[in-house]
Amino acid sequence: MPVLREGLRRALLALLLAALPWTAARAEGAIAVIVAPAHAEAHLDPGTLALIYQRKRQYWPDGSRIQPVNLAADHPLRLAFSRAVLGMDPAALESYWNEQYFRGVRPPYVVASSEAMLRFVAETPGSIGYVDACLAGASVAVIGWLDDAGRWHHGRSLPPC
User: Which of 48, 82, 84, 113 lies in the 20 to 30 Å Cα band around 25?
Assistant: First the structure.
């Protein structure tokens, strides 16, 4: 009986999230995709970014390991990033990672805040993450950004805050 309740709870949560308008889970402004400074010259398209966050691409062109990092599952920026890049809502991602875990593939690291994301990416070789574009600073390299509609823009120049 508890398994049935858990399944029902997940199904209701998925329906509720699907019913929310895009803007309810969308963070204000652009999302900057950031990397450790050593990979500032990286050129990624949305498909490659999705492969990295699905752990299907694990190495940078120089052979170093890619270390993707996420914000907490309920963070509005993560919801927007996941929908724009992976095309998945939280319930679908949970199902995906449950399946991958049994294949020996672990999900990206998770940090609690944008400040922790900036610190992790700045200090961890090979890392890649995302923050509100207005928070991206000199300690990390911006390689592209997602606009309010989820469209990818390659390059370091960000829209005004």
Answer: 48
Per DSSP, what are the bridge partners of residue 69?
109
CA angle 150, 153, 158 (to 5 degrees): 100
DSSP assignment letter at 80? H
Residue 33 pairs in a beta bridge with 130, 144
Tokens of 85: 């890049």
Would you kindly state where each structural domain of the chain is located, as residue ranges? 2-154
Instruction: Return the SS3 of 130.
Output: strand
Q: What is the distance between the alpha carbons of residues 98 and 57, in angstroms, rounded to a whole number?
A: 18
Query: Any idea what DSSP says for residue 40?
Result: T
Top CATH class of 2-154 equals: alpha beta
DSSP letter, residue 155: S
pTM: 0.80
Is-contact 119 3, C-beta < 8 A?
no
**Residue of 81, 77, 88 whose CA lies nearest to 28:** 77
